[in-house]
Amino acid sequence: MSALARFEEFVEDLLEGSFSQLLRSPVQPVEIAKRLERAMEMGQRAGAGKVLVPTRYTVFLHPDDFAAFSPARSALERELARFLVDQAHERGFSLLTRPRVSLEARPGIRRHKVQVQAEFAESAEEDTAELDLTPAQVREKLPQARLLYRDPAGRPCEVLLDRPEVTLGRARDNDVILDDPRVSRHHARIVLRYGQFVLQDLGSTYGTQVNGEPVHDCLLRPGDCLSLGGVELYYQEY
Prior knowledge:
Layout: H1 3-16, H2 29-42, E1 45-47, E2 50-52, E3 56-61, H3 63-69, H4 73-91, E4 100-105, E5 114-119, H5 124-127, H6 135-141, E6 145-150, E7 156-160, E8 165-169, E9 176-177, E10 188-193, E11 196-201, E12 208-210, E13 213-214, E14 217-219, E15 225-228, E16 231-237
Helix pairs in contact: 1-2, 1-4, 2-4
């Protein structure tokens, strides 16, 4: 599933919940996402053999249009930032830190129009700040997430993702030991990337899937079903 399709799913869930008033807004969240994607493309620059893209995005709206989004502002900003991480991952762009999106009202903007300002961090120190964190600071930035699954006897198990890297496999030196012959000794790992967890297959024999799709490197979303050689685990954030 593409980054835009995942964002559209989020918007559908939002509209079915307590923010149905967004349906009446002439500016739709998907339009904002597309403008952000365009701003990311336009702002790319080469650096150290990578294609770097901006990490700070401000979305300017007419005050009346902004008011329609105000009740859902925090959720939208958070999900739009996730959308940009997905986009960078799909396009092979590099982010020096997790993107930040801010929705702002600006009287000079015409109604029903969207204006996006994309910037790199003002200084190298700011841009690399999240790359030089102490272990305690890293834990503070971890999403509150867990894996749910059943052991071979059918007993429910829960593993908290409380560190930047968690390994999964049949071998005893893994963080999550899955005692099943379909699981490789070192099957996969979950790593922190830009403040979100990513599942990576480690060259397993029977492969790794997310929601039925084979993956090698996949950004995890709440509710995802992970399958390691057929052994299912569920990713949740809380």
